Amino acid sequence: MRNIVAMLVGRALEGDTNAASIVLSKVLPSVKAQAEKVNFEFDSTAPISEQVAQVLDAIAAGAVAPDVGRLIIDSIKSLADVRASEELEARISALEEKQG
Fold it and tell me: Domain total for the chain?
């Protein structure tokens, strides 16, 4: 094992990009993309359309990067979908109770 590692390091130092890639992938941790933290005026109790408009306003004002704004809007949509499912489940349960 040590001979293989020594050979890879040697080839990497000689300019072999494949060997360098292998060595670096084992030595350096993977860099994962991370969205930046943002701070802008947001009312989570507002209707969904107003929440999305708030995000779009923040993007237009330069307070939020467009890609981060897209993530926020996608999150708002996901939460709206969950809430809609919960409301539908509650309505179905109420109808089933009513019918006995």
Answer: 2
Question: Token pair 């072999």 is at which residue?
Answer: 16
Structure tokens at 52: 């999305």
Q: In terms of domains, do 53 and 81 share one? A: yes
pTM above 0.90, yes or no: no
Query: If we measure between CA atoms, which residue out of 76, 78, 34, 79 comes closest to residue 54?
Result: 76
Specify if 75 maps to a domain.
yes
Reading the chain (100 residues) residue by residue, the pLDDT tens digits are: 889 989 989 999 999 999 999 988 888 877 777 777 889 999 999 999 999 999 999 999 999 999 999 999 999 999 999 999 999 999 999 999 999 7
Q: How far apart are CA 59 and CA 23, in angstroms?
A: 41
Angle between helices 48-61 and 66-99 (to 10 degrees): 180
